[in-house]
Amino acid sequence: MKREINGHKLIYFDNAATTQKPRQVIAAEQTFYESHNGNIHRAVHTLSQEATEMYEDAREKIAHFINAQDSSEIIFVRGATEAINLVAYSWGLHNLKQDDEMLLSLMEHHSNIVPWEIVSKISRFKIKYVQVNSDGTLDYADLEKKINSGTKLVSLSHVSNVSGVINDVNYVAKLAHDNGALILVDGAQSVPHMPTDVQKLDVDFLVFSGHKMLGPTGIGVLYAKRHLLERMEPFQGGGEMIKDVSFSQKNGHCAISWNAPPWKFEAGTPNVAGGIALGEAVRYLQNIGMTEVLEHELALTAYAFKRLHELKKLTIYGPKDVKVKCGIIPFSLDGLSSHDVALFCDNFGIMLRSGFHCAQPLHQIFNLQSSARASFYLYNTLEEIDRFVEVLKELEQFWR
Ligand SMILES: Cc1ncc(COP(=O)(O)O)c(C=O)c1O
Question: pTM (2 decimals)?
């Protein structure tokens, strides 16, 4: 985005909240509406056929991006939040019974806590929370202690949206499976930033949001293994998710059979343009290479760590070892609220997040009400970090 704010070149460090969009992604949406707009899977006319083909092609691209076995394992949803709700209602409500257990961690985003708490009130299963160490890393010993044969699901973020800690999903997936449980991985902060291979990770469910990976808002993905999708109940009812609806005069009801996955979970007219634009975002990322994206962000994070230590009054939360985390840095400046820090930076064109980032339990562990957060993406530079440190130094001076 080419913008100046208060005469300063924009520096966008709020990528964990949402990312900026490349021209190609914006053009994909525009071209769709200008030349191909029709409803999908419904009509025989040219526009409908083209729209359907473009939408299903985006699904293929996304399947390939995360190495799903088949594109029918890719469900388009509004975002990570809706994907977790889908699993909670379509799988959790019907498969987690009274006295069954599921594990969450205390570093989860609220969207991986609240749906489970709601559904557990209905189905009466137990939720156990795995502890997080004071440096923000997962307490694996506590996980091993809490998992048992009564555990039916482990639901865990791959990367924390507060600390940037990368969890060992491979290990947790194996542990879950060895105990007869499934694993859901919240990939909202990992899929945009590193290579993802659902078959290698052996995860049962993976969720992520398009807007955090150069795509538009209002589109995201639930990946689930095909055999699970086949046995899951639908999430919402409506057009397109059914195979057949027939009215019986005898009992006055409609008998309904479901469409096959993925359409069984996509009731009503979906976000067609969003899906197509997300496919373009994936193409853009693949052209750069996800290993390159990750390496760039790790280099930015290591550099930012080094430079931020020049500030006397600044505290960084989370692990000291930059190797166990990716490009998210939560911090505070002595005596200043996170909103004051973010507002001061905003005056100089630097966009930071402040608050508790929808992760209050983790802030409790850090003994904080809130934190300021800088989060990087592929378009950020070392020069931007230098400017950021300069502005924070000015704030330190000013506050003194
Ligand atoms: C780790 C994590 N999970 C889930 C979400 C929810 O994503 P969305 O609001 O796009 O549904 C976020 C958003 O910040 C996140 O960081």
Answer: 0.97
